[in-house]
Amino acid sequence: MEEENERKEGANMSAFVTACGAAVGPVGQGTWYLGEHPATFREECNALRAGIEQGMNLIDTAEMYGEGAAETLVGEATRGFAREGLFLVSKVYPFHAGRRDIFTSCENSLRRMHTDYLDLYLLHWRGSVPLAETVACMEELKAQGKIRAWGVSNLDTADMEELLALPEGGRCATDQVLYHLASRGIEYDLLPLLRERSIPVMAYCPLAQAGRLRRGLMASPSVQKLAHAHGATPAQILLAFLLAQPGVVPIPRSGKAHHTRQNAQAAAIRLTPDELAMLDRAFPAPRYKTPLDIV
Ligand SMILES: NC(=O)c1ccc[n+]([C@@H]2O[C@H](COP(=O)([O-])OP(=O)(O)OC[C@H]3O[C@@H](n4cnc5c(N)ncnc54)[C@H](OP(=O)(O)O)[C@@H]3O)[C@@H](O)[C@H]2O)c1
C-alpha cells in the first residue's frame, strides 16, 4: 500500500519547481531536431506552445541542438508566457564546460532563448574538463543569477559517485539519461543511487524515438493491450510506465501539437500493479550491470 501511494505520488508531480514556486508538470518537452527547418518552424513552435498550455512547462534544449536552432525555437515558443511559470533547461557541450568557455556558452543560450536565466543548466556529457572545474563554474553562474540550478547528463554510476564526492557535487539537481520501457539498465544501480540522494532523473528518449530505438516496441502485445484498456496510444503507455517510477520526469519531443497534447494527457493514466507487472515480464530490467545506454 505504501509503495502504491509512493508510486501515485511520483506520477502526480515532478521534483522540480518553477521560479514562482509552482510545481513543474510531470511530463516535460524535448527539442532535439526541432527548429532546424524553416518549413516546419511554425508548426513546431505551435506544438511546444500547445504543450505549455497543457501544463508541460519544463522544456529541455541544448546549445548542440541544431547549433542553437532549438534554443531559438524555444525563445520563440515561450513568447507571451510568464517566465516564472516556465522551467527552462539547456545543456553545455562538454568542451565548453570549463572556465574558458562556459560563461560565453551560457550567455549565448540565454540570448537565443530570450531569457535572463535558466532554471537548470546541464553538462551534456562528460568530456575532458575536470568535473570539479565545471561544478565551480556552475556555482558561479548560480551566484551571478544566470542559472537557478545545475545538473548533468549521461553520467553513469561511477561518474555520479565521483561528482557527488566533490565538495559542492551534492548540489547536482538532476542526471538526464536515456530511459524507456525497453531500456531499463539504469534501474540496476544508477536510479537507486539517485533516489537515495533525492536527485530526480530526466528520462530522455522516453518514446524510444517513436519506437525507432527498439523495433516492435510500440506494436508489442503488452503495450497494445494496455493502450486498448486505457483508451490510450502506445506512446502514452510508454510515458505512463515512466511516470509510475518515482523521481522520473520524461521529456518526450514532438513537433506536432496533437502529439504534445497526448503526451501531456498521459499523466492522467495510472497503470495498476498488475499492468506494471505485465510490462515488466515483457520488458524486464536487467539484473546485472549494463553500460549506460546513450544516443
Ligand atoms: N541529454 C542527452 O544526451 C539527450 C539525448 C537525446 C535526447 N535528449 C532530450 O530528450 C528529448 C526526447 O528524446 P528524443 O527526441 O530523442 O526522442 P523521443 O522523445 O523518445 O521520441 C521523439 C519521436 O517521437 C514522436 N512522438 C512524440 N510524441 C508522440 C506521440 N504522442 N505519439 C507518437 N509519436 C510521438 C516524435 O514525432 P512527432 O514530432 O511527429 O510527434 C519523434 O519522432 C530530446 O528531444 C532532447 O530534448 C537528451
From TrEMBL:
Catalytic residues as annotated in Swiss-Prot or TrEMBL: Y65 (proton donor)
GO molecular function, one term: oxidoreductase activity
Superkingdom in the source lineage: Bacteria
Pfam families: Aldo_ket_red
Domain NADP-dependent oxidoreductase residue range list: 27-281
UniProt binding sites for substrate: H124
Protein name per its UniProtKB record: Oxidoreductase, aldo/keto reductase family protein
Site positions (Lowers pKa of active site Tyr): K91
Biological source species: Subdoligranulum variabile DSM 15176
